[in-house]
Design goal:
By secondary structure, this protein is α/β, with parallel strands linked by helices. 35% of the residues lie in helices and 22% in strands. It has helices at 42-57, 98-108, 110-117, 126-136, 138-142, 150-158, 169-172, 187-193, 226-233, 286-295, 300-308, 348-372, 390-399, 412-426, 447-462, and strands at residues 3-9, 13-20, 26-33, 39-40, 64-71, 77-79, 89-90, 146-148, 166-168, 178-179, 184-185, 203-205, 210-213, 219-221, 224-225, 240-245, 249-253, 267-270, 276-282, 318-320, 337-339, 379-383, 404-407, 438-441. A hairpin with a 5-residue loop joins β2 and β3 (26-33). It is globular.
Length: 467
C-alpha cells in the first residue's frame, strides 16, 4: 500500500487527505482554518498546511511517498529577493483592482486579451492585482522579486530549501499573463501591467511532473488550481459539467479545445491533464445560504426545511444575491437585492427558497454561457457543501436543463491533488483509475419561470449585463 497526500489550500481553510495511491481510499483527514479577509499573510497558509498534514497523518504509520497541493486560484503572492513576502497576499475575492482592470482591458482590448490569454481579466485575476500594487504601493512593488499563486507558495514551502518555485498550466491560466494556446508565460504583458517591472515567475510543469522533494524525501508534484483539482478527482471528461457550490460558485467543463470568449463571461482555463477547463465563476454561492439562514435565525438544515415548504418561484420574491459584489457578470460594486416584495409573500419560507433560487440562477446562467461557447452538457455534477441540501437539489434539477447527479460527499479538491500526487509518483501517461459514485436526482418543474423572473430582476436593477 502506497500513501500520498492531497492538500486543498482554499479561501477559508486547508484540508489534507492521506490517500491510498492505488485505489483512492482516504485513510486520514485534517483541517485547519485560515485567517478571514481578502488579504492574508501567505505564511499563515504554510502553518495551516503543516498542521492539517500532521492531523491527517495522526494514526497513520506508513510513510508518505508523494504530496500535491491544489489551491485557490488567482491570488497574488509577492516575495522579495530573500524569499520573504513583500505584503499580504491578495485573494481572488479581493476586488480593489476594479479600476485597474477597466484600464487594462480598455488599453489592450477584450478581443486581443481573450485571444492571448483565453480570458478577459476581471478584478479576481492576478494581473489586475499587480497593476493595483504598482499604482498604489510602488515602493512595495519595487521590492518584488517573484510572483506566485497561492498553490505555488504552499508547494514551495513544502519543498526543501533551494527548490525553484513551480506551477502547472491549469493554475497559470488564471493569472492573465499566460497563454493556454502555447503553454507559455506572457512576460511582456505582465511587465506592462506591473509598471515595467519584470518579476521572476515559477517554472511551468506538465500535469505529472515533479516540483521537487520535501526535506525528508517526499515527492512534491506540480499541484494545480482548486477547480482543476476537483475536475481531476471527478474524472470529468467531455460532456461533464461540474457545478461547485463553495465560497464561490463555479461552473466548468473539461474540453479538448480551448476557448477564447471576448465577452469575458467564460474564462478559458487549462485543466490538470493537458486539456482545457472553460469556467464561469460567481462570487456568491454557499455564503448566500448561510447569510440568509442567520437572518432567519436558523442554520442550513433549517433553511433547507423552510425552502422546501415554499413553491417554485418563492411567491414572486426574487433574490439577486450579489452580496459581495459579483465577478460574473462583472459588477464588483454591486450589492444584493430582493425584489417582488408584497405583504402576502414576505414569509420565511419564500425568503429561504428565493436565496436558493437566486444563488443557483447565477450558476444556471453560467451553464448557458458555457453552451454559448460550444460546451456540450451531457450531465451536471453538483458538488460542494451545499450540494447535499434537498432544496438545492430540487431547484438545481429544474434549472440546469440537463440530468443532474450528486457525487458522494468528498473533499474533491484535496482528492484531486492526491490523485495528481499518485500520478506523478507512478510516472504513467495517465492518472490512476479511482472509482467515483454519483446519485442521479429527478427533474423538478418550474425552473423556466424562475429563470425568467431572475433575468428580469437583474435587468431591472443592473441593466443588460449579457447573461
Amino acid at each position: 500500500m502506497t500513501l500520498v497526500i492531497g492538500v486543498d489550500s482554499s479561501t477559508q481553510s486547508t484540508k489534507a487527505l492521506v490517500v491510498v495511491a492505488e485505489t483512492g481510499r482516504v485513510v486520514g483527514e485534517g483541517r485547519q482554518p485560515h485567517p478571514d479577509g481578502t488579504e492574508v499573510d501567505p505564511r499563515a497558509w504554510q502553518v495551516a498546511c503543516d498542521r492539517a498534514i500532521a492531523e491527517a497523518r495522526a494514526g497513520v504509520s506508513e510513510p508518505i511517498a508523494a504530496i500535491a497541493v491544489a489551491g485557490q486560484q488567482h491570488g497574488m503572492v509577492t516575495v522579495d529577493a530573500d524569499g520573504e513576502p513583500v505584503r499580504p497576499a491578495l485573494l481572488w475575492n479581493d476586488t480593489r483592482s476594479a479600476a485597474e482592470t477597466e484600464q487594462f482591458v480598455a488599453k489592450h482590448g477584450a478581443d486581443r486579451l481573450a485571444e492571448l490569454t483565453g480570458s478577459v481579466p476581471v478584478p479576481s485575476f492576478t494581473v489586475t492585482k499587480l497593476a493595483w500594487l504598482a499604482e498604489h504601493e510602488p515602493a512595495a512593488a519595487d521590492r518584488v522579486d517573484r510572483v506566485m499563486l497561492p498553490h505555488d507558495w504552499v508547494s514551495w514551502a513544502l519543498a526543501e530549501p533551494g527548490t525553484e518555485p513551480a506551477t502547472d498550466r491549469g493554475d497559470a491560466s488564471g493569472t492573465g499573463y499566460f497563454s493556454p494556446r502555447t503553454g507559455e508565460w506572457l512576460p511582456d504583458l505582465l511587465s506592462e501591467a506591473f509598471g515595467g517591472r519584470t518579476p521572476r515567475l515559477p517554472r511551468l510543469l506538465g500535469p505529472a511532473e515533479v516540483t521537487g522533494r520535501t526535506a525528508d524525501g517526499v515527492l512534491v508534484a506540480a499541484g494545480t488550481g482548486d477547480n482543476m483539482g476537483a475536475a481531476l478527482a471527478l474524472n470529468a471528461g467531455p460532456g461533464d459539467v461540474v457545478v461547485s457550490l463553495g465560497t464561490s460558485g463555479t461552473v466548468f467543463a473539461v474540453t479538448e479545445e480551448g476557448t477564447a470568449d471576448p465577452t469575458g463571461f467564460v474564462a478559458g482555463f487549462c485543466d490538470a491533464t493537458g486539456r482545457y477547463l472553460p469556467l464561469v465563476c460567481t462570487l456568491n454561492a454557499a455564503r448566500v445560504l448561510t447569510t440568509t439562514a442567520a437572518l432567519l435565525g436558523t442554520d442550513l438544515a433549517g433553511l433547507d426545511e423552510l425552502a422546501l415548504r415554499a413553491e417554485p418561484g418563492s411567491g414572486g420574491l426574487v433574490f439577486v444575491p450579489y452580496l459581495d459584489g459579483e465577478r460574473t457578470p462583472n459588477l464588483p460594486d454591486a450589492s444584493g437585492t430582493l425584489t417582488g416584495i408584497r405583504r402576502g409573500n414576505l414569509t420565511p419560507e419564500n425568503l429561504a427558497r428565493s436565496a436558493v433560487e437566486g444563488m443557483l440562477c447565477g450558476l444556471a446562467d453560467g451553464l448557458a454561457e458555457l453552451r454559448r461557447v460550444g460546451v456540450q452538457a451531457r450531465r451536471v455534477l453538483l458538488i460542494g457543501g451545499a450540494a447535499r441540501s434537498a432544496a438545492v437539489q430540487a431547484v438545481a434539477s429544474g434549472l440546469f436543463d440537463a440530468p443532474v447527479e450528486v457525487p458522494e460527499p468528498a473533499e474533491y479538491v484535496a482528492l484531486g491533488a492526491a490523485r495528481q500526487a499518485a500520478w506523478a509518483l507512478s510516472g504513467a501517461e495517465e492518472p490512476p483509475e479511482w472509482s467515483m459514485r454519483a446519485e442521479a436526482i429527478g427533474r423538478s418543474e418550474g425552473g423556466a419561470a424562475v429563470r425568467t423572473a431572475y433575468t428580469a430582476a437583474v435587468a431591472q436593477i443592473h441593466g443588460h449585463v449579457g447573461l
